[in-house]
Every structure is written in structure tokens, then in C-alpha cells.
Amino acid sequence: MPVLALDSGAVIGKVRQAVIDPEERKVAALLVQPARSWVRQFLPMEAVRALGGHAVTVESREALIPVRQDERLWTLLVKKRIALAGSPVITAGGDLVGGVRDYEIGQGGAITRLYVGEGGWRFLTGSEREIPAASLLALGRDAVIVTEEALDAPRQERSPGDGGD
């Protein structure tokens, strides 16, 4: 997804990865590949003006910061390394719900819901469960832990362009 600066109307980079803060259960920053540069930079969620279906907007290029400039974000990126998309979703009772196919980000980067596809071949279909943030117990390197009620979330069909991370 491109990152657009509102002051110039220029694409200043492309989002490469979300940096997850597991304790806060939110996206703390986006890792951005700046235009015409190989050196990736952080885009803290506080600097994001809007997160739309086609682009992320920021006030200006100055919203991007060098990765080594913010120790907390660097630690989340390198040491915590939470890759939410694709993570298995397990209930507190140890039952597999499926795998994270997508997730929604709300104000300030808060993860508002997960879209979870079932395991095996069913993961490839459009059928998935929509799990609200209130059901999230933990975001970990190895799995996302949810309440038992997540198994009761109804299955639904969702187009690839619906929702978004």
C-alpha cells in the first residue's frame, strides 16, 4: 500500500510490514520502504492521518523516522517479531480456530477485529470467522490466543477487498 504525503501529493514510500505491539494489542508503526531508497523507515501510527483502502496518508515526508531512532519500535520489530497475518488462532482451551487471514486497524492502530480462516483447504475459501478485539487474550510470536467464545463466531463470506490491515 502506498504512503502519500498530503503536503506534496507524492508517494513517499510503500508499506512493507506492520509492527505489532502485543501488550497494547495494536499496530505501533508501519515499516515503510521510502521511494528511491533501500533504507526502510518507521511510520509511527500517531503520524498517520488516515488509513484508507488504497493508501496511507501523512502530513509530510517528515512523518517517516529512521528505524534506529526509536528504540521501542526497533525492539518490537526485531525482538518481538509478531507477524499477525498467517498466525494460528487458538482458544484459551487449546482449540484451533484457524489462521489470521486479515485484520482491521482502528484509531491509533488498535486492532479492532481479526478475520480468521479455518485450517487446511478451507483456509483457501472465502469462509472465515470475524473475531472482535474483545475476544483477544494475547498476541504472540507463535499464536494468537482468543476466548472460547471465538469458536461461536459465525462463519461468513468476505471478498478479498473487504476490511483491511
Name the descriptors.
single chain, 165 residues, mainly beta, Photosynthetic Reaction Center, Chain H, domain 2, SH3 type barrels, 2 domains, seven-stranded mixed β-sheet, 14 strands, 6% helix, 45% strand, elongated
Description:
The chain is mainly beta and 165 residues long. The chain folds into two domains: 2-80, Photosynthetic Reaction Center, Chain H, domain 2, CATH 3.90.50; 88-157, SH3 type barrels, CATH 2.30.30. It contains one helix and 14 strands, in the order βββββββαβββββββ. It has one helix at residues 71-80, and strands at 2-5, 11-21, 26-34, 41-44, 48-51, 56-58, 65-66, 88-91, 96-105, 111-117, 127-132, 136-139, 144-146, 155-157. The strands form two sheets. It has a seven-stranded mixed sheet with strand order 5-6-1-2-3-4-7. It has a seven-stranded mixed sheet with strand order 12-13-8-9-10-11-14, with no helix packed on it. A hairpin with a 5-residue loop joins β9 (96-105) and β10. The chain is elongated and about 50 Å long. It starts with a strand and ends in an 8-residue tail after the last strand. The relative contact order is 0.17. The mean pLDDT is 87.
